[in-house]
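note to self: dont lose this again. the chain is below, predicted strucutre after it. 418 aa total, dont forget to put it in the shared folder this time
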Amino acid sequence: MASMLNLHVKQKQSLQLSLKLWLPLLQAPLQEIETLFKKYSYENPFIECNSSFESSYSSSSSLGNSDNEKRNFIENMSLYKESLFDVISKQIEAPLFPTPNSQKVAMEIFANINTDGYFEGDIESIGKKLNTTKEFVENVRQRFSKLEPTGIGAIDIQEAFLFQLSNLAISDEVYTFTRKIIENLNTIDKYCKHHHFETARDIIKQFQYPPAAEYISDQPYIIPDFFVEVKDDIVIKINNNYYPDVVVKDPFTSKNSELKEKLKEARDLVNLLDLRKSTLYKLVLLIVEKQIAFFIGSELKPLTMAQIAEELGFEESTISRAVSNKYIQCDKGMFSLRSFFTNAVSEGLSSSEIKNYLKVLIENEEKEKPLTDQNIVDIVVKRYNMTMGRRTITKYRKLLNIPSSKERKRFYKINMKY
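---
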């Protein structure tokens, strides 16, 4: 009885160990797999991890496409670009912020700046939190107009433009007129006859919008986990070039219980690496089959992780881990696996299709009378014969980073030929 109990405990511990190794291995991005196994090899004497890139690179004088991809990835990783936090933090010092108190307030203001570069905090709340006056906080915020990139810390687009305008070396007359236009963007057309209008319009067109655009537009270097080709048949190829060569080596003639556990762990890891590949392959194949219409030129269909989980026999949370940071390369471009899951707006109609239609509508709207969210709702409801609220369209528009109709009208006026 005792031996059976011990066996049950050991099996349970083994299962727990496998799960502990399995889930991080399944969730890890492709470019981190080798690093993960290097770490395991340092901790486990039975694991030998060799970089497939190093061996293929050293054994060949000419680089193929996959090797070029690897070299590009390494070059991209080695070229570190400072983040917005790095850039701004270095500037929060004397002489612009000469005292510890002003620097503390400046950092608190910076903590309330969103990814676009706009300040979205509350001046009075910051004053109370730091035991200072709201006037002093606002004074410090105004100094952000002297920081790079200019426009950071402004409360809206008009102030961001004014921040940028204040740093230009232009005549007082042009400055005054351009400022007037910025402050009256909604009625910009009434200034079109002014002799400085073209100059002012060209100045405004050069401004950064949003202020942090330079830092939010950069995309990380993405490595596809699979290559998908859909023609007469579906062809899916795993990107093996970024998987390390992992082998189990046994240099010990005798082993104590600890070494035996390490040996078992090493074997489990090799098996789990193969399991990762096969699991992701089945997952990608099922996604492509479910979304075949997308790959041949149509729209995404409604698809949930729960549906995929049921067909593959996994928990939904496992599927969520599996698709995290995974990508496929196909004729239409590079896509994350997560992007293929889209909710149903109505039977057979996905939110992705509505979003794409929304983009088309706005791309082709009248510049002098942009479509409001309610206008778009009316068009969508009529086209798809369905019920939809304005809030849903507003949410989709924001997810697509499309400005409101009022903001779009301002930009159309700025760029309009008079």
